[in-house]
Design brief:
By secondary structure, this protein is mainly alpha-helical. The chain contains 9 helices and no strands. The chain is globular. The relative contact order is 0.23.
């Protein structure tokens, strides 16, 4: 009788390897992770949750697209990729402007300037780094040679949980700066740094 899957040491080794690779590749600075951090720093934790939820759901959608091979269909449409890249870059520049010009937390009223979950979702779907990073992690996990093969649903579940955890950590890191943003001078400097970092990481993801 076959040994239960979760009791096999080789499976746990492969799962650990998958988590470590996902942490390094998917968790590295990029348009979505830096934007979550920047939004968290500029607007605080609670106002940033909807945007982060959109980023997470959009990134999970990218994961499903990569896993099901739909990304190959997009690759066969050479005119679509530049349009997505331009749309993503345009929104990131707009978001960077909003972050750079955001007033100190203590001076804010209303919710008009807060990024929405839909904006986060669309940015994640149009994020070029997400497709490359997730495809690399997914392909690496699929090419492991060993007695135990990680199932598709197990890989999807683990990577989806990693997406949630990674963006949660970046959001918390950003909100750690929020307490400094009640002082106008510190607020302006930190917001400008995050806005510049967001633009730089996006440029590296697209052209690096």
């Amino acid at each position: 009788m076959t040994e239960p899957l979760l009791s096999q040491p080789d499976l746990w080794r492969q799962l650990l390897a998958l988590v470590l690779v996902a942490t390094v590749v998917m968790g590295s600075p990029g348009p979505t992770t830096i934007s979550v951090t920047a939004v968290g720093a500029a607007f605080g934790l609670r106002p940033s949750l909807r945007y982060t939820y959109g980023i997470v759901m959009g990134t999970i959608a990218v994961l499903l697209v990569v896993a099901t091979g739909v990304v190959a269909v997009f690759a066969s449409m050479p005119k679509l990729a530049p349009l997505l890249a331009v749309a993503s870059a345009a929104y990131i520049l707009y978001l960077a402007f909003k972050i750079a010009t955001a007033p100190p937390l203590a001076a804010r009223t209303g919710e008009a300037s807060r990024p929405t979950w839909l904006a986060g979702f669309l940015l994640a779907v149009a994020n070029p780094k997400a497709y490359v990073a997730i495809a690399a992690v997914f392909a690496g996990a699929s090419s492991k040679q060993g007695a135990v093969e990680l199932g598709l649903w197990l890989k999807l579940t683990v990577l989806a949980l990693m997406i949630v955890a990674i963006h949660a950590v970046w959001l918390i890191a950003g909100t750690a700066f929020a307490r400094f943003l009640r002082r106008p001078a510190a607020s302006r400097i930190i917001n400008l740094v995050f806005a510049a970092t967001l633009v730089l990481t996006t440029a590296l993801a697209m052209f690096g």
